[in-house]
Design a protein that fits this description.
Distance between the termini: 55 Å
Radius of gyration: 18 Å
Structural class: mainly alpha
Number of domains: 1
Order of helices and strands: HHHH
Largest sheet: none
CATH topology: Helix Hairpins
CATH class: Mainly Alpha
Number of helices: 4
Length: 140
């Protein structure tokens, strides 16, 4: 059990670091776009939000790939399982249950889900903050 927790925790930390990097970039780009553009149109809001959400979706997809690579390293899934699919199902907490981890790595599924839930929540907070800062510009 300790091995699973340490391995899952390490992969979670890698994804948290990756997410922190993307969040920092998204916030800085949104801040600089807002400072450079004095436009008060709804098009500017759309022009900020679409790339913000798209970049965050790409970050989550990359984090799923990190999990799928981790599953591959330790052979956590049954033979012939699609590891990216398995990682997506766990990361998004969809939980179809059609692919389950091998017994010795059973905790990786819940650890992946916990990592995904936390990072989705973080992304939601950043989306809200970018939206809030963009809307504040319209009030001036």
């Amino acid at each position: 059990m300790l091995r699973q927790l340490l391995f899952g925790g390490t992969i979670s930390l890698i994804n948290i670091a990756l997410h922190a990097l993307v969040m920092t970039i998204v916030i800085r780009v949104a801040q600089s776009a807002g400072a450079a553009n004095k436009s008060q149109s709804a098009l500017f809001l759309i022009a900020v939000m679409i790339p913000t959400v798209s970049v965050l979706m790409l970050a989550h997809a990359l984090e799923v790939i990190v999990w799928s690579l981790a599953y591959s390293i330790v052979d956590a899934a049954p033979p012939a399982a699609n590891l990216v699919y398995f990682a997506f199902v766990n990361y998004t907490t969809l939980g179809y249950g059609d692919v389950v981890p091998v017994d010795r790595w059973r905790l990786l599924g819940p650890i992946t889900a916990m990592n995904g839930v936390l990072l989705f929540g973080w992304s939601t907070a950043v989306i809200f903050e970018v939206l809030r800062k963009t809307l504040v510009r319209f009030e001036r």
